[in-house]
């Protein structure tokens, strides 16, 4: 997922159909997107996972976000998920797919908060708890920045990396899906990872070494 | 070509993805059995509002309208139905004008301002949709969202966050595209704020 505000986990509309491991979830999202009112109601009920995931993440991080921030973030996440619904392919369970958006939007929100603090307050965290929390945030930011940086790659390369690392598809599966030779897929994959690393290395020298 | 030296470096990136994927799975799993400190019902109500649905959509199907002896509420429904049909017709007409009635050679500005974007091809009659190309006066970090619509306005393909000013569909994506399309391109800055947008219509033709 992606940029400071918008995840880009998936880059193409669903096409997986019956071969998707989570065909039921895929059918639900497609029906909801078509406007089926029952499907939409069920979809919203499934999105109950958003406040739960974001709350759990906030707890893990030491409650850096206030309750009202979290509620706003729930809405932002839901909007993002809805706008990306056509890209859901049923390769992961719906809640897992949504959780990826939750994680990266959470980190984006943290990043905005930190940036505001550094820009406007211009102070270092003074309390040990605050320092510890910020170091956790830094590590998390590295992860989200890496995933976010997918958007800087060619869509085809980004898609291969997403399928391989987030959906755990084998190189063979990806090659067959795209109708491209296996070695070509591998070459694009490793080249893509190298580009990601090259872009991120100056920012996160220690953590990536 | 020996690619071995690259792989240890790539592992760090793979680990980061693995962490995100693993945590997403873990949190998703836990969300089935845990509740949040937030007011979930209030949040879900907002979700419903956004989609124009309600928790009782399934539970209470609309009552049949007695057309022979209309009540005030059925009169209101009839009025709403009529107004909806009229509005739909107007919208459909408007959409048709938007999609298909653009001048074939629209007047375009000579130069583009910062963030502005302009659809270059395909436009009008083309042999294939093998490459989408646009022009932009972009600064570093600018990205583009490409959307392709069918004539009835349905979104056929969304390709978000492109970093270059062209995109080529895969063979399977190409198959999904209808004969006539309208496509839009939106440029965004690194914080995802929209900088500019443009749209164009095209159709498959043997003699472009």
Count of DSSP H/I helices of chain B: 4
The end-to-end distance of chain B, rounded to whole angstroms, is: 43 Å
SS class of chain A: mainly alpha
| Greatest contact between two chains | A-B, 77 and 64 residues
Task: Count helical runs of chain A.
Answer: 10
Shape of chain B: extended
Strand order of the largest sheet of chain B: 2-8-7-4-5
Q: What's the alpha carbon Rg of chain B, rounded to whole Å?
A: 24 Å
Structure write-up:
The complex is a heterodimer of chains A (209) and B (208). Chain A is mainly alpha-helical. In chain A, α3 crosses α5. The longest helix of chain A is centred in the middle third of the chain and has 28 residues. The N terminus and C terminus of chain A are likely disordered. Helices cover 35% and strands 24% of the residues of chain B. Chain B has a 5-stranded mixed β-sheet with strand order 2-8-7-4-5, with no helix packed on it. In chain B, strands 1-3-6 form a 3-stranded antiparallel β-sheet, with no helix packed on it. With 208 residues, chain B is of the alpha+beta class. Classes of the chains: A mainly alpha (209), B alpha+beta (208). At the A-B interface, α2, α3, α4, α5 and α6 of A face α1, α2, β5 and α4 of B.
Please specify the SSE layout and strand pairing.
The complex is a heterodimer of chains A (209) and B (208).
Chain A: H1 23-34, H2 37-46, H3 49-60, H4 67-83, H5 94-121, H6 128-148, H7 155-166, H8 171-178, H9 182-200, H10 205-208
Helix pairs in contact in A: 1-2, 3-4, 3-5, 4-5, 5-6, 7-9, 8-9
Chain B: H1 7-31, H2 40-51, H3 72-100, E1 117-121, E2 124-126, E3 132-136, E4 143-149, E5 155-162, E6 166-167, H4 171-176, E7 180-188, E8 194-204
Parallel strand pairs in B: 2-8
Antiparallel strand pairs in B: 1-3, 3-6, 4-5, 4-7, 7-8
Main attributes of the structure:
heterodimer, A: about 210 residues, mainly alpha, disordered N terminus, disordered C terminus, B: about 210 residues, alpha+beta, five-stranded mixed β-sheet, 4 helices
